[in-house]
Design goal:
The chain is mostly helical. Helices cover 62% and strands 7% of the residues. The strands form two sheets. The chain has a two-stranded parallel ribbon with strand order 1-4. Strands 2-3 form a two-stranded antiparallel ribbon.
Amino acid sequence: MNSVAYIANDRYAFEVAALTAILRSIHDERIAAYPRQTDPAEVYERVHVALRAARFVDLGEPRVINCRVEPEHHGDLVEALATLEPDAVTGTIEGDQVKLTLAEVGAIFPASARPTVQEAARAALEDAKAITRPFLETVAALGTRGFDKMARQHIEAFRAEADRQADAAFAAAPDHLKNI
């Protein structure tokens, strides 16, 4: 799995535009050469070179596998971009398709997509409210004997649920965040 990368907004826009232009030129060449098929290895290589030149993705060392130069890392991203089909409406490769492929396959986003501290804190607060609401409703409904015992049971259940959710959130977190 690729780690999430955030690129400065202006550089991200520039690289998406450059990749889109390269993919469009490849598509235009395929149309001009019709009915002769374009070699998929050539398309792969051109996308590989474009991503290597962009340098916002660490492709690692190039290596030759099956008579094709492949990157050490992010080969799936190169393959996804090389096999990108034109938009059904416009008939050409669109920037949004490139952005979607970068996000879904390469986990590459503009810096503006990174959540702020306030957004993360707001989401954590909403989660905490959702967890504590049933407990508070139960405590408010208690007005009878045995309150201490029931309150302890609810607190223990709350702690167990909070620990379970924290463990699940940690397990779902990307690897680069687990080392912080």
